[in-house]
Amino acid sequence: MDYLPDDNSRYKDIDYWDERYKTEQSFDWLGCFSKFKHLLEKHVKQEDSILILGCGNSSMSGDMYSAGYRSITNIDYSSVCISTMGARYSHCPGMTWQQMDVRQLSFPEASFDVILEKATLDAIMVEEKSPWEVSPDTACFIHQALTE
């Protein structure tokens, strides 16, 4: 499978992600844990409750767990991804995996101390005319997601 679609709007399509995650083992958008470690150590306490939006098949949460972060909730649009990653990290108590659309989060307000996002918003905003002037619906979604 070609991981770069011909049309960026495919990034919002669940079938694209399910097919991709059936064959791709791991991919870290924007960089792996080691690239962000210094920022996380500075701003995130190991005992914080962490939500990772659009976790994908990144090793980020597994690497964070190995570094001492123990309360990590991972969500992704793709059930294929969640099933695979849940099995891969089944040995990590305190790390959970849930299939969920980030545009319709079902957590009670203030459930998490920290929310991490590495390019999930890029997939959400593929049809925006400008990433600097987003539609009211997208702005509302971003606000809702970041105040979970």
UniProtKB/TrEMBL annotation:
The keyword Methyltransferase applies. Residues 50-122 form the Methyltransferase domain. GO terms for biological process: methylation. One of its GO terms (molecular function) is methyltransferase activity. The keyword Transferase applies. Keywords: Methyltransferase, Transferase. Pfam families: Methyltransf_25. It comes from the Eukaryota. Belongs to the methyltransferase superfamily. This is EEF1A lysine methyltransferase 4.
